[in-house]
Amino acid sequence: MNTAIAWLHAPWPWYVSGPLIGLMVPLMLWIGNRSFGISNNLRHMCAMTQPKSVGVDFFHYNWREHYWSLVFAAGAVLGGFLAGIVFANPDPIALSVAALTMFSYWDVPIGSGYLPPVLFDFTWLSVIVMFAGGVLVGFGTRYAAGCTSGHAITGLATLQLQSLLAVVGIFAGGLLAAHFITPHLFSLFW
Amino acid sequence: MIKSEAASWYRIMEMFYFQSFHMFGIMVSAIITGFVGVLLLKRFGRLLTLDGDAIVIPQKAPGRYNYIFGGLIFGLGWGVIGLCPGPIFALVGMGSIGALAALAGALHGTWLYGLVKNRLPH
Questions:
Q1: What is the spatial distance between Cα B41 and Cα A28, in angstroms, rounded to a whole number?
Q2: B36-65 residues touching A, CB cutoff 8 A
Q3: Which of A35, A67, A188, B79 counts the most CB atoms within 10 A of its CB?
Q4: pTM over the 0.95 mark
Q5: Structural domain of residue A153, as residue ranges?
């Protein structure tokens, strides 16, 4: 019993979580032809809250048909709560030495958190940066009709060229930002 | 996502700097598992969904530029905040105000796309 609880608190190795995530692709197809991907929820949430008078037709569709997707998102929130709080990992994250060195060079503290505290909590930096980054994420995922779960995992697992294009774009953008923008973020605002 | 630390900003940066195999391990093993799983589904072709319909793999909509540019824009955001939509929801569950801000931003970004999409190359 003790080891089971300990295992629930510890972070999981990639060869456990990776296959678990990958299993979702055939599982969701089997359950009802659902395509595994989460970013569509952003569109649903916009559609839900848009009053009929506003004329953006991207959101004029029957979002209620996609209610399972919203359930999935709610599940992700609950999962975050369970894994991140109820079964929280008490130890600091096991990053590689190279990463740790880089973070100390950037002046970013590392605790057991998932985001640097300055981004996780309520600070001016977090609100502005996270919001701005979020806008890019929201815009980009709808333009590309998918994010890493929909394209990198589902799309590639089902061998779709469009997803490969998306993944190439995503990684190019990510590398650009991570190498040229993020390191300077912290020195700018400190 | 939380357990695999795929929702961790630190892990994402580590990935973009190729300082660890962890994130790549997750993605590659997920894709392979998904691929094999789908293959098996097709093999046992007469396997039906729980509702009794034949299993159909939804195809992505046709397009070129929307995938590349959309991916680029999304990637830029991802490279800064280290979160993609899944982890955003997961971290909201953990009580992160920053993640909430990211969610708010993402919703606005989505809405912005809805507004301008007809003027963008697809």
A1: 11
A2: 37-38, 40-41, 47, 49-51, 53, 55-64
A3: B79
A4: no
A5: 2-189
ipTM score of the complex? 0.71
- Kind and range of the H or E run holding A35: none
Which chain A residue lies closest to B76 (C-alpha atoms)?
A173
**Amino acid letter, residue B9:** W
CB A173 to CB B74 under 8 A?
Answer: yes
Q: What is the 3-state secondary structure (H, E, C) of chain B?
A: CCCCCCCCHHHHHHHHCCCCCHHHHHHHHHHHHHHHHHHHHHHCCCCECCCCCECCCCCCCCCCHHHHHHHHHHHHHHHHHCCCHHHHHHHHHCCCHHHHHHHHHHHHHHHHHHHHHHHCCC
Residues B37, B75 within the same domain: no
| Nearest-CA distance A90 → chain B (Å) | 12
Structure token digits, residue A162: 């469009």
Residues B88 and B115 in one domain: yes
Same domain, B52 and B66: no
Cα–Cα distances (Å) from B98 to B9, B82, B94, in that order, read 12, 12, 11
Cβ-in-10-Å burial (0-12, 13-18, 19+) of A33 comes to: middle
Identify the sign of the CA torsion A148, B80, A87, A78: negative
Domain ranges, residue B86: 60-122
CA dist B25 and A94 (Å) reads: 15
Give residue-wise pLDDT tens across range B83-119. Answer: 777 778 877 777 777 788 888 888 888 778 777 777 7
The total number of structural domains that make up chain B: 2
